[in-house]
């Protein structure tokens, strides 16, 4: 049996895969089910095997604003479990019936203490993902700025 | 002599500080001087000791859109030097006369190969910084959304 496909695991050697395999548990969730809420203690990291998960932020008690929908296999979420102060900064809800791999934060941190190279690879992949998201945001700012410039010309 | 104050080095032990110290070179730059351009090969990471540096993205050949100004001591930039494909995604220009610490990517990667824990700490700090920036962006989206809701109520 292999590790699930996940962008966080890119660059793993066989050694990393073997010791990581014991950290993973499988779970399923039904469409509409909440996996965690913004502000909860971030104890688990999730990888999507099948299905889709929506990430949301609460505007007030009544309104949850969708930030993104993670659809493809290999996407991950709950990354606040990797970064102090380990508090989820978004809520997560199953957008479809889904199959997920779950990694417990404490077990993962224990493994990283024993094998810092594992931590280096994971945190490099995580930083790359965040940088890609920041670049997307900047791209949107550029598009808005260009539209504004065009409007001002006419 | 101590390591410069830098958010990337938070959590370093004495051992990390000692081996890191040899990687750092000091430089100065004059207000308005370009340190690198968007699209350049990212060979160096920078920490601000004194002064301020502006990060910009080019809209077209004629216009550079400011993204942020890094003012305080301890801020760092040129982070694309830590993440493949090692290409600067923004341009950097001295906003004031500045004193900078410069870290060569190849030397740093060589050191991380020898001491993966060093890499784990740096990449964790980097991921935390990126996550903080993403949270700021989301906060701005929330503010715009709330303004929009108020406008629609009246």
What is the 3D form of chain A?
A: globular
Assembly state (oligomeric): homodimer
**Number of DSSP helices of chain A?**
3
Tell me what portion of residues of chain A adopts beta-strand conformation. Answer: 25-35%
- Largest sheet of chain A, order of strands side by side? 1-8-3-6
Largest interface, per-chain counts?
Answer: A-B, 33 and 33 residues
Question: H/E element string of chain A?
Answer: HEEEEEEEEHH
Number of strands of chain A: 8
Main sheet specs of chain A: 4 strands, antiparallel
Query: What is the helical fraction of chain A, as a range of percent?
Result: 25-40%
Low-confidence runs of at least 5 consecutive residues of chain A: none
Report the radius of gyration of chain A as a whole number of Å.
Answer: 18 Å
Coarse structural class of chain A? alpha+beta
End-to-end CA span of chain A: 61 Å
Q: Mean pLDDT of chain A, as a whole number?
A: 90
Q: How would you describe this structure to a colleague?
A:
Two copies of one chain form a homodimer. Chain A has 154 residues and is α+β, with helices and mostly antiparallel strands. Helices cover 36% and strands 27% of the residues of chain A. Chain A has three helices and eight strands, in the order H-E-E-E-E-E-E-E-E-H-H. Chain A has helices at residues 14-21, 105-114, 116-153, and strands at 24-29, 34-36, 44-50, 53-58, 64-70, 76-77, 91-94, 98-104. In chain A, the strands form two sheets. Chain A has a four-stranded antiparallel β-sheet with strand order 1-8-3-6. A four-stranded antiparallel β-sheet of chain A has the order 2-7-4-5, with no helix packed on it. The longest helix of chain A has 38 residues, at 116-153. The mean pLDDT of chain A is 90. The interface between A and B is medium-sized, with 33 and 33 residues.
